[in-house]
Amino acid sequence: MTLKHVVDTAVEAALQTIKNSVDKMDKHVNDLATDVGPRTAKQVLDFGKTLVGLKSKMEDKNIKTDVCMIDEAMHKIDTLPNDVGRQVQICKKTVADEIGKYIEKTDANFKSFTKEAAGIAEEAVKCLKATSLVCIGKVSLAVGAAAFKMPNGIAKQASDTLSLLNAFQERAVVCFTKAVDRTAKKAHGYLNVVEQCMRDKKILM
Fold first, then answer.
1. Residue 11, pLDDT score
2. What whole-number distance in Å separates Cα of residue 38 and Cα of residue 82?
3. Is the pLDDT of residue 1 over 70?
């Protein structure tokens, strides 16, 4: 088995492992994104129901609903799921961009291993043509050392990349969670403003 074959095999295996990990992570992130939408929509719907109840109280008392801007608050709450959808897409794109950068870097590092292997092979051909035993001895040592070192280097590079992928997945989760929290806080804020206004005007006790 030539050094080139050893390196090519190690690189191919590492790239396949990374591809499998990226595919898994992509599915996980997409599943999370799919879960975020309905969860946020339910939270927003609950706040919306509360506002509908408050509006009904105002109508029962023949008070115009524009007094406490309840219709405006309801409209703002209705648009929140779309805001979260946009935020989720931004989260996904940011993570995908980061992954893309590291995959490119990993690919470049792998190419440097194959280039080094090709360089050693070229030296070996020159030595054989020159039939210099000293030269052949040196190349044999270089091939032996590279065959031991390179697969380990490739495996380490793959391991480092997989660790980074896990970190990016965590960042996606944090990003989604923050998007949901921000939306819930906004909706709660709109509701609080209406409720406080109604208390101030003695509509709500």
1. 84
2. 11
3. no
pLDDT above 70 for 66: yes
Both tokens of residue 5? 């074959």
Domains of the chain, by residue range, sit at 3-9+35-200
Q: What is the dihedral of CA 182, 184, 186, 188, to 10 degrees?
A: -150
| Exposed/middle/buried for residue 150 (C-beta within 10 Å: 0-12, 13-18, 19+) | buried
Task: Give the other-Cβ count within 10 Å of 139's Cβ.
Answer: 21
Mean pLDDT (whole number) for 102-130? 79
Say which DSSP state 203 is in.
S
Burial class (CB in 10 A: 0-12, 13-18, 19+), 73: buried
Closest-CA residue to 149 (of 116, 198, 192, 189): 116
